[in-house]
Amino acid sequence: MYAGKYRFSRRAEVLGKSVYDHAEGAIMLSVGSAYPPILPDLSREASDSAKAYVAEVMQYGPLMGLADLREAISDYVAADGVKCTPNEVLITNGAKHATDLACRVFTEPGDKIIVTAPTYMTTLQCLRSHGLTFVAIPQDKDGMRTDILAARLATMRANGDALPKLLFDVPDFHNPTGITMSLERRKALLALAEEYDFVLIEDDPYRRIRFEGDPVPPIKSMDTNGRVIAVGTVSKILAPGLRVGWAIGPNEIVRRMAMQKADGGSCPFTQRLVVDAIRSNKLAEHIDLVTDHMRVHRDTMIDALAEFLPDAQVRRPNGGYFLWAELPEGVSGDALAEKAVEHGVEIGSGRLCFPNEDPGNFIRFSYSYVDPNTIREGIRRLGEAYRNMAIAA
Question: What is the signed CA dihedral for 71, 74, 76, 81, rounded to 10 degrees?
Fold first, then answer.
């Protein structure tokens, strides 16, 4: 054992609990993993790829990704109105890899980035690792408050402050709140990006997992001046273990992002599986399957919360994987998350989702990973934890 003192970087000095650490044996209502019983069988595609494409899939992959996959992604997003060429598609190791590469290309430590408050907690970790300063903008039922953002940007400009270089948002079935941004807000964001010279990172992993309502056009579909990097992944619509995501933007941007890769190119074997799944229509069929199950999971969780934790105000999302709940004022989301583990269920504290100040009384759920009966049992246990916490207070 080394007896000296390691010279860790500042970012590595803190060693605490990770959002990827989970309580052993607890019912997992915190993790946005795929539902195990419906994980896809890709054994045929794997066997075919290992035989027919051995020289491709057992080698280092192209830096930008397989040409066939980039073409397939171009066709896939065209259904949402996004027009791009394969030359404008970069394949990454999931969506957060794409966001990380965009930060490498555009930002220096101390630069500003616009985010919602709250926002996706593990992306916040990524953004913090780049030393970025958050411009945190609240949301309402229509998404990010672009009027507040416009006022903040105008004040920065008037004061001679440095303006943000990037904006990150999840406009469809927002993680964690479940909000879908309105068309008017999407157009307003594009207008602000033009006026104040920043680039939008549009993270859209859940778009196709819609339970009700009509889809709103992606921001990227309205982008005529190269202001949007559209980020996608198969993690929620096929399988997270494949680690296949993408970024769509002007070649000048995505090529620079590719040059920041430190992995020698994303895995060509799993890329080939995704190509086959898209072209055989297996991906589309799997999205339908996931959507049908997640609709039942969502409804089960909402009904169980109404029965066992009626004090929580819950926003009903029209798609995606997550629920966001507000506890009565003064009730700590951190404390309830800790007490819940004692009762054998794990939820997420809302604190992890706030870039700056935490209101303190929010909790985050995922209904994706366990079956409806287990969801109901988990919420029942959570209700017990809540009541015991109130008695102790």
Answer: -160
